[in-house]
Design goal:
Number of helices of chain A: 9
CATH topology of the largest domain in chain A: Rossmann fold
CATH architecture of the largest domain in chain A: 3-Layer(aba) Sandwich
Keywords (chains A, B): Polyamine biosynthesis, Spermidine biosynthesis, Transferase
Helix content of chain A: 25-40%
CATH superfamily of the largest domain in chain A: Vaccinia Virus protein VP39
Radius of gyration of chain A: 18 Å
Pfam families (chains A, B): Spermine_synt_N, Spermine_synth
Oligomer: homodimer
EC number (chains A, B): 2.5.1.16
Number of strands of chain A: 12
Pathway (chains A, B): Amine and polyamine biosynthesis; spermidine biosynthesis; spermidine from putrescine: step 1/1
Subunit structure (chains A, B): Homodimer or homotetramer.
Strand order of the largest sheet of chain A: 8-7-6-9-10-12-11
Distance between the termini of chain A: 53 Å
Chain lengths: ~280, ~280
């Protein structure tokens, strides 16, 4: 009997490959090529333009580490914006913070939301929560027209190709700064230091020009290139390394801990060098 | 023109795949199947029984993190034993510590040493150093006949299949304890928490029965399963988390830093749970 294996070439010369039980859905949306598959190792997985976005087995790492690091850094986050993130995983984590009164999600591709609800219900389940407002639209434009509105902004985008290309520009970070309140913080996924060192350096440089506090942290995501994923923080006032112990409250997580909150910023030497 | 890709199935249903420029050597040795290949992404790579052992591009992570964590924890390491590690990478890092007067390497497979010298010269180059004694032999037996001899022992083995199966037993850890001096420390590679959680838990349990201080730390190794690799420390007196700032000295590294020495022990929640 033949076997179906999906291979993502993470670089021209290296990739991961996974055995597929069943392809659940494939569709060329208005913005990208969407695939949903049931894999043996990782459960259901979402691919956009051939790249792994999330899997049922390891999704908790990315979603927890995007959400909790900035949310615990801010002293009282009430209004949160998620740009991208149509699978709903970041929103699910955001809602674990009782201070958050409203979380707005703006994803350009309604199909990502639709098929995540269908095939990744434990990830997307909180998109229906009454504290959440889902908008299908352009995150860049949403940011551009927002002013002094959000406490925390999270950029949960694809790579800087296709629909996300505007989300890796200095103009976008300037827009984020304007959209944030005076104690605001943003976080953006920033790819990986092994294959995309230049991108990480460029984002660090650009964000530093706009935010007085700029930091980089990492987490281990097995289905993402190199297994080490980077996140950039830009903050107007609060330093993620200076969070007091009393700020933390108990939260149900599988990856994030308050100790890891700080340790995640301690970088391997070759990664630290990219931030200097 | 056809392309040659090597695929390592890291689990039954998941693997990494890499484009090969050229196969440099393949041989069934007395102990394992050895392959050396020149890859596009990672440079020259050594495979044993189909598993990636090391690559020129990412080898520094494993070798630095095996060597420097125990060596900086011990106040004055003079005599060091490396079990396995025939590629010479751990030895190269050990020699960066001026206190080390003698480093003994015992690898069961002389062919690993021979072909590492030939195809991984910047990894194996220090095997000829006058402070190094290379023995081709059984590390388990070497440990069994050693008493109160070493300050630090490093177990740089393959997985617990094939020749390394004895190196994951309680009897082996008891032997290590006897072979160490009274301030002795050992470290062993312990696979990864995503696919081998049971193994990590078992090693933690076994080592705790013998060593008063037992710790787990991790590092990101892109060519190893899941990208997160675990290392177990067993120590008679010195705690790797209690190293004073004055103990550290400058050392030329690409991954290890004195800050990372401590941060590497701060584990994601699901990994921490394996140690309790």
């Amino acid at each position: 009997m033949s076997e179906l294996w999906y291979t993502e070439k993470q670089t021209e010369n290296f990739g991961i490959t996974m055995k597929v039980k069943k392809t659940l859905h494939t569709e060329k949306t208005d913005f990208q090529y969407l695939e949903m598959a049931e894999t043996e190792e990782w459960g259901n997985m979402l691919f956009l333009d051939g790249m792994v976005m999330t899997s049922q087995k390891d999704e908790f790492v990315y979603h927890e580490m995007v959400a909790h690091v900035p949310l615990f850094t801010h002293p009282n986050p009430e209004k949160v914006l998620v740009v991208g993130g149509g699978d709903g995983g970041v929103i699910r984590e955001v809602l674990k913070h009782p201070s958050v009164k409203k979380a707005v999600l703006v994803d350009i591709d309604g199909k990502v939301i639709e098929y995540s609800k269908k095939y990744l219900p434990e990830i997307a389940g909180e998109l229906e929560n009454e504290r959440v407002e889902v908008q299908v639209g352009d995150g860049f434009m949403h940011i551009a027209k927002s002013e002094n509105e959000y406490d925390v902004i999270m950029v949960d985008s694809t790579e800087p190709v296709g629909p996300a290309v505007n989300l890796f520009t200095k103009g976008f970070y300037a827009g984020i700064s304007k959209a944030l309140k005076e104690e605001g913080i943003f976080v953006a996924q920033s790819d990986n230091p092994w294959f995309k060192a230049d991108l990480i350096q460029q984002v660090q440089r650009d964000v530093k020009e706009i935010f007085p506090i700029t930091r980089l942290y990492t987490a281990n995501i097995p289905t993402y290139p190199s297994g080490m994923w980077a996140f950039t923080i830009g903050s107007k006032r609060h330093d993620p390394l200076q969070v007091s112990d009393e700020r933390f409250h108990d939260i149900d997580t599988k990856y994030y801990t308050k100790e890891l909150h700080k340790a995640a910023f301690v970088l391997p030497k070759f990664v630290k060098d990219l931030t200097e």
